[in-house]
């Protein structure tokens, strides 16, 4: 039977000694923690609450880590936090705004990097629900501008306050947080530089505001928690997490917009649940997932699919040019090798050793299917046996083929004046062959490829001095520009470069872009698929551990 563990953190004060004399006084945070614990208790969670001096960084990490060891697939962990939020400089440059968000705990701040590491310690199939009522931004100038808005009668009314009566904000005092940062700089930077592990649990966060907003405190509760309690209505609310978030958002002021964010392994079953559910809807079926890019180049490189399979089970993959072919009873006689492929037809059931795992369509099957379709549909089966269908489950049932996921195949050739582009598989095996890029320089006759472990290295003016052979590769450094005689051209990353970059891909991804030029040895009418000033949006390949069959 599924199990629920909940942890509730509330701080009306922090330790002045740790924050340069600032005690962070708030009013509603401990009440928030108690009220959220009351919800958890009513639903059967095993609950723990820590407030003020109890809520140290070490104790919060211990409680979450302990829950991770106790919970297994199908269980749920609820973590609620109410207190000040802060930001600090992101020394690794893996945040687009160069800031890491923090919880301001009794003795020090806890970084989002640390929390990510804690979520990564949970087993695959565990659901994690995180409710955070705190600020996630903040300069003094922005806070002052926000408070001045309360001279406007209509704006103040949104917070149910009188003009000039600005609310208390759950924004850590910048000077106090800076002092705390300087006192603990070494510990913080260690947390930031440690490679970020992959989260295999399914994590849903509902937070009190956006990263660039403030959360208001109140005399009884924080404003966000107050609205959440109203919507929950002692359990009378019906609907899923998205509707829950939308109902809270509809009750909030225009300058405080709660955020809904998901990370880890996507789970449609988790998304569809009534909030805080421990119950039976989180079964092994929800762990059976198969995904692919929305679009994929109809070229020589076969399609790779990402899989999540219930622990201990075996799987088989099916791909079809028409989703109705998945319905064996109705359309099984229409299946041919040119419109339908099933791994179970050619080999025993497979077993995944990593989450997610990868499955690459065999080249001969890929070449047959892609010749007969502009879109391919896919699903996955799992079974408890390596050779027979035992308690079999599928991601898309025969009766629901209309909802089967699919990938659109892009044309493999483009005219010389087509739109320049570069593409690669969405994910590849960490220990597999180097990635292959499909390149179309458009009207350019020559091209160059760049690959980096961090997209910021594409911004030469700011980060060019940090480029090394271990974090950045450019074809133009080692060879003339490449000929684009064929559209698209394919480019394989050299094996020695692949070895260096994957060993240093601390984000678990490699980023790439393409330049084009009209000359073989100099930049003539050059262009780039991802300009320097848009480096953070460069496409990426996810690196996954090798699939064990």
Task: Give your account of this protein's structure.
Helix content is 23%, strand content 25%. It is built from 16 helices and 29 strands. The strands form six sheets. Strands 11, 13, 14, 15, 17, 18 and 19 form a seven-stranded mixed beta sheet that branches. Strands 21, 23, 24, 25, 27, 28 and 29 form a seven-stranded mixed beta sheet that branches. The chain starts with a strand and ends in a 5-residue tail after the last strand. The protein has three domains: 247 residues, Rossmann fold (3-Layer(aba) Sandwich); 123 residues, Single Sheet (S-adenosyl-L-methionine-dependent methyltransferases); 124 residues, Immunoglobulin-like (Sandwich). The longest helix is centred in the N-terminal third of the chain and has 15 residues. A hairpin with a 4-residue loop joins strand 5 and strand 6. It is globular, with a radius of gyration of 26 Å. By secondary structure, the protein is α+β, with helices and mostly antiparallel strands.
């Amino acid at each position: 039977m599924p199990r629920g563990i909940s942890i509730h953190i509330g701080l009306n004060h922090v330790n002045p000694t740790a924050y340069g004399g600032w005690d962070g006084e708030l009013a509603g945070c401990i009440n928030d923690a108690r009220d959220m614990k009351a919800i958890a208790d009513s639903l059967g969670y095993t609950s723990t609450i820590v407030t003020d001096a109890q809520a140290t960084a070490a104790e919060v990490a211990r409680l979450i880590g302990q829950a991770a060891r106790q919970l297994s697939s199908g269980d749920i962990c609820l973590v609620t936090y109410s207190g000040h939020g802060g930001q600090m400089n992101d020394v690794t440059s893996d945040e687009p705004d160069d800031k890491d968000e923090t919880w301001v705990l009794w003795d020090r701040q806890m970084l989002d990097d640390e929390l990510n590491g804690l979520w990564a310690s949970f087993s695959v199939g565990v659901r994690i629900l995180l409710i955070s009522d705190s600020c996630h931004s903040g300069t003094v100038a922005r806070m002052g501008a926000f408070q001045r808005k309360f001279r406007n009668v209509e704006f103040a009314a949104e917070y149910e306050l009188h003009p000039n009566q600005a609310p208390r904000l759950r924004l850590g005092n910048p000077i106090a947080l800076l002092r705390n940062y300087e006192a603990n700089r070494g510990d913080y930077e260690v947390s930031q530089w440690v490679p970020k592990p992959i989260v295999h649990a399914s994590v849903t966060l509902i937070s009190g505001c956006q990263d660039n907003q403030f959360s208001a405190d109140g005399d009884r509760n924080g404003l966000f928690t107050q609205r959440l309690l109203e919507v929950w209505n002692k359990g009378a609310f019906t609907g899923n997490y998205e509707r829950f978030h939308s109902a809270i958002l509809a009750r909030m002021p225009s300058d405080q917009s709660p955020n809904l964010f998901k990370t880890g392994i996507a789970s449609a079953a988790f998304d569809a649940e009534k909030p805080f559910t421990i119950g039976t809807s989180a079964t092994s079926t929800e762990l059976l997932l198969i995904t692919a890019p929305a679009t994929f180049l109809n070229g020589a490189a076969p399609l790779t699919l990402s899989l999540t399979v219930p622990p201990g089970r075996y799987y088989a993959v099916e791909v079809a040019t028409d989703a109705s072919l998945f319905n064996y009873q109705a359309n099984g006689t229409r299946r041919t090798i040119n419109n339908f492929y099933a791994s179970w037809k050619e080999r025993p059931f497979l077993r995944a050793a990593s989450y997610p795992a990868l499955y690459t369509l065999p080249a001969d099957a890929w070449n047959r299917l892609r010749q007969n379709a502009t879109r391919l549909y896919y699903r996955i089966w799992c079974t408890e046996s390596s050779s027979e269908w035992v308690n079999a489950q599928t991601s898309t049932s025969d009766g629901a083929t209309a909802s089967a996921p699919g990938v659109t195949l892009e044309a493999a050739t483009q005219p010389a004046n087509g739109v320049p582009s570069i593409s690669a598989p969405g994910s590849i095996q960490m220990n597999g062959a180097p990635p292959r890029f499909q390149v179309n320089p458009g009207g350019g006759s020559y091209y160059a490829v760049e690959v980096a472990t961090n997209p910021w290295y594409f911004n030469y003016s700011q980060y060019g001095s940090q480029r090394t052979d271990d974090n950045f590769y450019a074809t133009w450094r080692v060879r003339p520009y490449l000929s684009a005689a064929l559209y698209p051209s394919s480019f394989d990353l050299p094996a020695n470069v692949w070895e260096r970059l994957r060993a240093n891909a601390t984000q678990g991804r490699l980023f790439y872009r393409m330049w084009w030029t009209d000359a073989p040895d100099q930049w003539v009418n050059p262009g780039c698929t991802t300009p320097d000033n848009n480096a953070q949006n460069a496409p990426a390949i996810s690196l996954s551990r090798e699939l064990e069959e």
